[in-house]
Design a protein that fits this description.
The chain has two domains: 182 residues, Rossmann fold; 128 residues, Rossmann fold. By secondary structure, it is α/β, with parallel strands linked by helices. It has twelve helices and 14 strands. The mean pLDDT is 96.
């Protein structure tokens, strides 16, 4: 076991997969000589060279389209968005090409591509650099969507995503890159379609993902001190949602709180509520509580920015409300 930063865990995953499979390459802005805007590709250029670590112009639609074309020829591209917000410029390529070509070609093509990079609300990055695109992409048929939250799951999930024969949109939170954790020295892979039970409990199911996992864990000591016993589930897979794990927890606790950094309107939480009501409505003893970000562009002002996202004290208040 080695204590590893999350950005290093992601770099190790890419390095191991590039070493394992010569068809894997990475493409994006500043991924080569500079080593990536958050150093996820640091030193890989000196090992693999220009043809496998491709620096591109500022042209997301072009290099994403080129990567999809490469995937059709049985290469395995990793597209790094310097910020996931910039990949809105490649929305057509991701939706109409990456997501649909396997289907519209009658299965003649597979699209083994990973589209990854930093997202979420950072520290005063401004509205255009603070987007949460998971809900934008969730409605697109043909995509898998994963949100890592720890160095351990970041490495295991990224390795699995690179090996998958489907397009995977892989979300990393900009404020988690410097998170450290002991991870195994030996190789490991994690499933892309399974949620993680972070803590078992019997009183209430708290569903969360990405950075909000850590806000929930910050609230946990206070909740335990007050005698509450929450079950905490990190969704990890945002598409498909692991409704089996979620359902088993609801059948035990009969109460649900959703904690997300996504916007409330049309967010991941909205889809979760719909699915839970369809499948497990009769198991619920209380209406679902949803804690989501404000439906406004993220302010640059630091205090206003903090006011838009969910904090541990709000999670504690929600548990009080649902268990009163």
């Amino acid at each position: 076991m080695t204590k590893t930063f999350m950005f290093d865990a992601l770099r190790e995953a890419i390095d191991e997969e590039m070493d394992h499979d010569p068809t894997v390459f990475i493409i994006g802005e500043d991924v080569g000589h500079y080593g990536g805007s958050y150093k996820v590709t640091k030193d890989l250029h000196s090992k693999y060279g220009d043809l496998r670590i491709l620096d591109t112009p500022i042209a997301e639609n072009t290099f994403t389209g080129m990567a999809i074309g490469a995937a059709i020829t049985k290469l395995r591209p990793i597209v790094e968005g310097m910020n996931m917000s910039f990949l809105l410029l490649a929305f057509n390529q991701i939706a109409n090409n990456a997501g649909m070509l396997r289907y519209t070609s009658g299965g003649n093509f597979t699209i083994p591509i990973v589209i990854r990079g930093p997202g979420g609300v950072g520290r005063q990055l401004g509205a255009e650099h603070s987007q949460r695109l998971e809900a934008y992409f969730q409605a697109i048929p043909g995509l898998k969507i994963v949100a890592c939250s720890t160095p351990y799951n970041a490495k295991g999930l990224l390795k699995s995503a690179i090996r998958d024969n489907n397009p995977v949109v892989f979300f990393e939170h900009v404020l988690l890159y410097n998170l450290q954790e002991q991870i195994p020295d030996e190789e490991y892979l994690l499933p892309l379609d399974k949620a993680e039970i972070v803590r078992s409990g019997k009183d209430v199911t708290i569903l969360t993902y990405s950075r909000m996992r850590h806000h929930v864990l910050q609230a946990l000591p206070n909740l335990l001190k007050e005698g509450y016993d929450p079950e905490i589930i990190d969704l990890i897979s945002l598409k498909p949602l692991d409704m089996q794990t979620i359902g088993e927890s609801i059948k035990k606790t009969h109460k649900v709180i959703i904690v997300e950094e996504c916007m409330k309107t049309g967010g991941i939480g909205a889809e979760l509520i719909a699915r839970i009501n369809e499948l497990y409505f009769e198991q619920l003893d209380h209406s679902i509580i949803r804690l989501s970000s404000q439906d406004i562009p993220t302010p640059y002002n630091g205090q206003l920015e903090q006011a838009t996202v969910i904090h541990p004290y709000q999670i504690i208040q929600a548990v009080h409300q649902i268990l009163k």
